[in-house]
Amino acid sequence: MDCSVKYIFHLIALDNEQLSLATPERTIFIQIVNVVAMLHRFWEQKQTKGATRQADSLVVYESAPSPGPPFICYVTLPGGSCFGNFQCCHTQAEARRDAARVALMNSLFNELPSRRITPEFISRSLEEATAGASGALGEASDPSTSIGAYYLMLQLNIGKTMLEFQEIMTVFQLLHWNGTLKAFRERRCSRQEVISHFSQRGLDERTRSHMVLDWLQRERRSPGLLSSELNLALGELASARRTGRELRFYKEKTEILSLALDQAYGTLSPLVSEAYV
């Protein structure tokens, strides 16, 4: 590990605050290093060590088409976590560097021991969940309850990092948003069956295609619904990006809705529209 990466680890270890809200010391240091190359090298080393599943491409950048500034760039990491530039960027290269900076800080922060799911982490999480909800700790053994389903998901992902867990949680966020989880309940599928199935399967093109078809059917029943939902999703994506949050859930929503709208009428892609939100 070179000295620049070690220094970044030192800055991160100072506290556990949200990385997108970087201190001036962190921001200045990250700005003077080649963050695009460092991000690629970081994930290349993880793949070499066998720490991640093999991917066709390590880090994928996607620029939102725009006739002029401000420019927007998204970077997707192995596994699916997505980040974007949260600063106002006047060139595409600047947007790419800023997106890489956010992704690098989150990638490094994710390596800290405190970001790994352990039995102690699960206990604390359950206590916090029950304190803020109507459930009780005793429900953790029953997967049919909300607390039980949460406990099952944590148990299935013990040893994984928070970014890896977030990748799985995004799948269930999309299933809930799309109404798929409700459909499974109506078919009397248990939460345990659904969680076990999608924890292993993840979000594939078949699942996305089913979601697109679902929204096409809703549009036929309620014309104009897709445009309304897409505008709402684009606003959520823009807001999340500007605060440096992980973006996959918001970006997947916009892409699913945009594809459905394109199949229904033909229109702009979400990445074109988001530049104007």
Could you explain how this protein is built, in words?
The chain is mainly α. The protein has three domains: 3-114, Double Stranded RNA Binding Domain (2-Layer Sandwich); 117-201, no CATH class; 204-277, no CATH class. Helices cover 60% and strands 4% of the residues. It contains 13 helices and three strands; from the N terminus they run αααβββαααααααααα. The chain has a three-stranded antiparallel sheet. It is globular and about 55 Å long.
List the helices and strands and how they pair.
Blueprint: H1 3-13, H2 24-31, H3 35-48, E1 60-63, E2 73-76, E3 82-84, H4 92-109, H5 119-131, H6 146-156, H7 162-178, H8 180-186, H9 191-201, H10 205-221, H11 225-242, H12 248-264, H13 270-274
Antiparallel strand pairs: 1-2, 2-3
Protein name: Limb and CNS expressed 1
InterPro entries: Autophagy-related_EPG5, LIX1
Family: Belongs to the LIX1 family.
Provide a concise account of the structure shown.
The protein has helices at 3-13, 24-31, 35-48, 92-109, 119-131, 146-156, 162-178, 180-186, 191-201, 205-221, 225-242, 248-264, 270-274, and strands spanning 60-63, 73-76, 82-84.
Discrete helix count:
13
Number of DSSP-assigned strands: 3
Calculate the terminal CA-CA distance, rounded to whole Å.
40 Å
How would you spell out the order of helices and strands? Answer: HHHEEEHHHHHHHHHH
Shape: globular
Largest sheet: 3 strands, antiparallel
The percentage helix is: 55-70%
Question: Would you tell me the structural class of the helices and strands?
Answer: mainly alpha
